[in-house]
Design brief:
The protein is α/β, with parallel strands linked by helices. The protein is built from seven helices and eight strands. It has helices at 29-42, 48-61, 69-72, 116-120, 124-142, 175-185, 238-258; strands at residues 20-23, 65-68, 80-83, 94-97, 147-149, 160-171, 193-202, 208-216. β7 and β8 (208-216) form a beta hairpin. α5 runs parallel beside α7 (238-258). It starts with 19 loop residues before the first strand and ends in a 14-residue tail after the last helix. The relative contact order is 0.16. Residues 1-18, 185-190, 218-234 and 268-272 have low confidence and may be disordered.
Amino acid sequence: MRRLGIGILAAALSGCAANRVYVDPAKTAGQTHADEDACRAKTASVAEDQRQKAFHECMSGMGYAAVSKAAAGKVKGFSKAWVNRDVDFKVYEAVFVGPVDFSKVSLKDPGLPDILDNLLKPTREEAAELAGRLRDDFVKFLSGVVQVETKREALAGRKAIALEIALEDIHGADPGANIAAQFFLHTSISSAQAAMSCTLSDAASGASLAKLEDKHSPNSFTDDNVTMLGTEGFERWTGAHRILEAWANRLAAFLAAKRGQPYKSPFIKKVL
């Protein structure tokens, strides 16, 4: 079985013991989920009492190791996380924030009517703008903790962290539903749902330092419920913008804590 090494991502385990997760330091969150799905499909025909063992053998055969959820660790504000406990984040003098990957975001199909799920999906242009907004938020918030660079060549000769971000899913608000809720129920409904993952690695060696994931869906929190009356175009993404800011704020707080620095959230009120 491959040695865990440094930096492993805790991926939720389905089909195995509830207190274990499968991890591999060389694979992203998306790759881990894809491999889990492949092993579930491969073992679907195995007798139920043998399926858990078969799933474990399948994942192990692809290089994953099973660890306890406690060993995977937690990071405040992120639903899934793993941080290498041996890393001294204070030695890093800069963070490189690369472009956000949004290739997995489900886009609006122009050939379908704007009803139900298709209405809430972003166009490619909107997804690109949201990905850019997420990168800008990470740059803005992290700049209060450490020097931030957006070009790799600026890292030459420096001890730096490379931050890779993926926007996994994004759904916007339905202005019509919000208007109806406000008119009939005198309230607003949750305005967006989104999912992301990010990886922090040593810019020189590529060694994983931490991997974090999070997902927010309608009504999973209250402070992001916003009034959507009269929204048009990109304004329907107001709620999504607040989720993106919250992620950036959380990562900045995490990194500041790891570096032993004080951190004061720029938000006047709690975002999430």
